[in-house]
Amino acid sequence: MNNSNFEFPPVESATPEGLLAVGGNLNNKQLLKAYRQGIFPWYNADQPVLWWSPDPRLALFPEDLKISRSLKKILKKEPFRITLDQCFKDVLQGCAAPRQTRDEPGTWITHDMIEAYQQLHELGYAHSVETWQDDTLVGGLYGVSIGGCFFGESMFSTVSNASKTAFIHLVQQLRRWGFTLIDCQVTTSHLVSLGAVEISRSDFLEKLELSLEQQDKIGLWQFDNDFVLNL
């Protein structure tokens, strides 16, 4: 697949690991088309673009967000300041920094991906959540918003609980806006602890189709003026 607007094969033709297609590029139209079909890119710098549609799929429904008792105690102390869309590229670079954890061995966010998602951000489809301690960025996440679905891409943190705090704020704000689905893509213990669950690909696609009936929330995001974290 070498042209910029190729059609994806049926998701049912993906490999058992979820690999659906190889090649193409990350232009805006292709990325948005992919997300609307429940497909996302995930590959290393030495590979062509790999497109995935795993089965099962990890998803979180905003009303099912879980906050542990210990985390609630921490959040009540308000250790962080959380913002939306204040420094999107810095969050991308934080997510792209090399790391070695059980869930995320190394980095997969290439230079081309940074450029592609920066363009989606400028178009109003990609968004970041930032976690601050004083004036220092210590964590955050980014993803793509279409209709009533937020497609989470990656998160990072340099201090304990920074990315979880960003995610919790985002989920509660998305629920206020009427979002019905958060795509977490593949299973990590980090997201499962927050309430994400594995569902079948067919179930995910049905819920995605319903969420896409909502109007896109395009542009720079900010928290509602009366937003207060619900603990």
Structure description:
It is a single chain. The protein folds into two domains: 11-52, Alpha-Beta Plaits; 57-211, Aminopeptidase (3-Layer(aba) Sandwich), CATH 3.40.630.70. It has helices at 28-36, 69-76, 88-96, 111-122, 162-176, 189-192, 201-211; strands at 19-22, 40-41, 50-52, 57-60, 81-84, 126-133, 136-146, 149-157, 181-185, 197-199. It is 29% helix and 23% strand. With 231 residues, it is α+β, with helices and mostly antiparallel strands. Strand 6 and strand 7 form a beta hairpin.
- State the fourth-level CATH superfamily of the largest domain: Leucyl/phenylalanyl-tRNA-protein transferase, C-terminal domain
Can you write the helix and strand succession as a string?
A: EHEEEHEHHEEEHEHEH
**Content-based structural category:** alpha+beta
Distance between the termini: 48 Å
Q: Provide the β-strand percentage band.
A: 15-25%
The level 1 CATH classification of the largest domain is Alpha Beta
Radius of gyration: 17 Å
- Taken together, the total number of domains comes to 2
Basic shape = globular
The counted number of beta strands is 10
Count of separate DSSP helical elements: 7
Assigned CATH architecture of the largest domain: 3-Layer(aba) Sandwich
According to CATH, what is the topology of the largest domain? Aminopeptidase
Can you give the helix content as a percent range? 25-40%
Low-confidence stretches: 100-106
Largest sheet: 7 strands, mixed
Spatial strand order of the main sheet: 5-6-7-8-9-4-10
Mean pLDDT: 93
